[in-house]
Each structure stands twice: as structure tokens, then as C-alpha cells.
Amino acid sequence: MPRARNPEIRALLLERAAAMLRRREAVTLRGLVAGTTVSTMAVYTYFDGMDGLWKALRQEGFVRLSAKLSEVPETADPVRDLAALGAAYLDNALENPDLYRVMFDAGFELEDTAAADASLHKLVVAVGRATAAGRFREDVDALELATQTWVVGHGLASLTATGPLPHEALGLAVPMLTALFVAAGDDPECSRASVESGWVLGATADAHPPGG
């Protein structure tokens, strides 16, 4: 019988690869296992080689993103929730900047594309709830608006977590998202209040609007 795989070894190799990226080191077979009790063969056992490792790193980024988005509570204010999902997206990028860079490296296929698509689907659902609540116009395309919301978050994440802008620039999301949602039909004052309530970086699991 083939020997059972140890998930701790797989996790170890992924964490070491992410740490090497963080230190700007070349991710090599020998470097991955240096100082551990596993051999280079483990990369083939668990990932079928280095290409498989990079695929797994990309997937791990989306796994952590999905977990972070799942921490966002659903409240009575769907626009607030949409902004909170954007904040959670930023939180994940700031907490995992090395994996965040790898997530969007299309040079390596994802192991599970459906799992990655599920992250965007959470935004689509929030847009649908806002439309049903009368906050957005009925003719608003949920996928399109969710994608635009993602673009705002991704742009800020790329320019702060892995780019040149200081973290203070993350506050720009409030006026940008407000303008986006107002264009979709939301009342300017209500939209601003909802976005400010939801855009709480580092505390998405605890962010509840008054009465929510």
C-alpha cells in the first residue's frame, strides 16, 4: 500500500515557499527542505514537482481569501456588507502579501478554479441583496458591479500590500466605493454611511452597523 501523505508536511512546504518569497529568495527544491527533516522528494510526493507547488500556492491564496470573506457577517444592510467584503479582501492581501502576489500569476493553473470563482460570487450575492432591498437600480448587472467592486479592492491591494503606496491610501476606498454605488442607484448619504460602516480594516468579523 502507498504510504499515507502527511498534511502537515504539505502545509510546511507551502509556508516555507511563502516565507522564501517574502525574503525575496529563489524558491528551489533544496531551499524548500533546507533545515527540515524532509527530502526534496517530498515536493514530488505532495505536488508532483515545482509546477505543482506553484499551483498549490496560488490555490492556497484563494483558500485563505475565501476563509477571510466567510468571516464577514451578513447584516440588514447589504451595501455595508458589500463594503465589508472589500475590506476583508484587503485584510487578506495585507496578511498574506506573498501569497497574494502568486494568486494572480496566470502562468500556473489553479487546482480548483471553482473555489476561486466562489470569492467573486460572494460579492455578486451581496449586490443582488442590495438590489432586492431597493438600494440599487433593478437594471444593475450584479456580476458587473461585483467585478467593479473587486477592481477597486484589487487595485488598492496591489498598490499597498505589494506596491508603492502607504497604507493610508486604503482610505480612498470609501469615496471610490461610494461613487460606484451611487452610480448604481444608491442614495449618496446612505451609501456613504454604509460604506464607512463596512470599510473596517482588520475587524471585519466584528463590524456590525448600528441596529444590524
UniProtKB/TrEMBL annotation:
InterPro entries, per database record: Homeodomain-like_sf, MT1864/Rv1816-like_C, Tet_transcr_reg_TetR-rel_C_sf
Boundaries of every HTH-type transcriptional regulator MT1864/Rv1816-like C-terminal domain copy: 82-167
Signal sequence segment: none
Keywords per UniProt: Transcription, Transcription regulation
Protein's name in the database: TetR family transcriptional regulator
